[in-house]
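Exercise: predict the fold of this chain.
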Amino acid sequence: MKPSLLIFLMLLVVHPLCAQDFLKKGLDAYAEEDYKTAFKCFSEHLELYPNDATALYCRAVIYEHNDDLINALSDINRGIEHYGRKTILNREDFYYLRGTIYQQAGMNNKAIEDFSVAIKYNPKKITYLLDRAQVYYENGNYDASNADYQQAYNLDNTWLSAAVGLARNLIAQKEYEKAIMSLSKLTKLQDNYGQIYRFRSQAFAALGEYTKAIDDVISWEVYDDEATAPLDSLQSYAIHAYTYALAKVSATVIAYPDDINWLLARAKIYEMKERYSEALNDYNAIENKLEKEWIGLYYHRGNCYKELGLYDLAIQDYTKAIVLKESADFYALRADAKRLNNEFALAINDFSKAITLDPLNGWLYYRRGWVKEKGADYSGALQDYTTGIELNKDYAYTYLTRGKLYHDHLQQSNLAQQDWQAVLEIEKDTIRERGNSVPYALFYLNRWEDAEKQQTKILTEYPNSSNYYDATCLYSLMSKPKQALLHLKIAFEKGYRDFKHIEVDDDLDNIRITSEFQNLVKEWQDKTTSSSHNDLGQTQEHITKTYTIAMKALPSGVYEVPCKINDLPLKFILDTGASDVTISSTDAKFMLKNNYLHSQDIIGKRRYLTASGDIIEGTKIKLRKIQIGELELRNVEASIVHNQDAPLLLGQSVLKRLGRYNIDSSKSILTIMTSESLIRTQ
């Protein structure tokens, strides 16, 4: 915590020793946030005046700023000991600073003692009361915390943090309705104070009102635009109200086009639902807006590339991350991408580098062992698995894999049985979002019925692509090809794209030779290739032309773009958040009446997401031709919105097919980078 700059400015004026260069230079440097110089000057001053309480206080502040709490505490203790009549700072300043140091060190009782001393000297100092209230809250003493917050509020009712603290304490006591009522009243006093929305969102979420929680988190981020915590909260709420969260964040992206935080939030929401192509669009847009390299971009985008099977691109991004910061995590991620790319030797090298940086991480040994096993280095694999278990005895997957190694390659069935039984003991009654090992262990122990029941439980709780792929493997091992192929199809539909792993996964050997399996895999490989080339245009050779299209900025913050639908001149609203094309019932009737739409263009019914986050049923149609400037797309699916005043929206189903795009909000220009193959041929 940085102390009040006012104290240091005061010292510059009134401290009797300021005529001495060291102290004055230190105070000047601190005012300029040159903490290194400030520290040096205070230390040199203390060599001359070792018991100067003011200088000790100043240096303690620098230590605290650098998170050196031990030395900070040593200096402030000496400062309190040698406090005297010539010390310009008030005595309570010393106790308050020591209280903050104790609080940061987790020594809350001592912090309360010092805050109490400071309050005794100055009972009307609101910051003292607020900080003691916080520590009381951390200790679970809500009555004492409430008393301090109330006293602070009584002293000055413009300090909304005190009122918010009272509401926060209600939430801690599960008085959610009362907290919401209290916080809602505060919005009438000051509607742009972010902390109000922060805590009200928590109360709404606790009551299961996730759409309201999402609204408040967005307001929190808008009013505290430098905070990152709101985006983390948004993700946790989006799990429960995905479509609403996506719609609201997409609208906010349009409203704040220069704020990359909203693009980042939407990208993470897309990732949550394994919509990696859409996430990549946002990450690429973030890259275009960044003024300098950001390691987080390479991490997140690399993960998306890997999930889509674009391993070379994933490796490139992980390498960029490693250049910026050598990390065991980044080496492990790159190693895994190399493994998927069948670069086993290079993968082992990267895992070894990761282990060098984090030698006590048992998971890294497990991963390296797995790659060694794939390369038929069974003794090396066994050594790594065993080391991994010694370092992390609670990671069930290592036991599972070592058991399989014992059984398949080392002919030690008894040891295999022991490892698989250990899996059941470790993971008893545990269901994970990813990486469940119990169904496999039950299968290897010949408890097939139990294995199938457990896998069904997993899919019920977490119906994601990873778990559907695991179910595919399980049914393949059981020689149940129909069930295996059904689950593999669902895994693909939900976003599974790890085709390199499919090639080498021996769990699939029982279905690998079937034409149904081969055709299914090829179908989705082709779709993925088409998506990566046509939708994303990630490699430069696929991007051959750039088009600029003038847009009209509307007062609502969206853009209107001229187009032709089946040769009918229209104007559409550019909506990067919408997934599909939608037209109003009025426009549809006109097009039918005037032969721009034919009866055979009507396909059936579909559901679509409104701007408010509602899911409504509409009529599904096919648009034979969409023209935007020089660009032309054919056979585009759309929905008729049963609302006469609804605008024409062109969403991701069109934008992705066009290629990469960029919106210049300052010039109202839409730039599209695409290939010739995407123009007039679809």
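Check your answer against the key: The longest strand covers residues 615-628.
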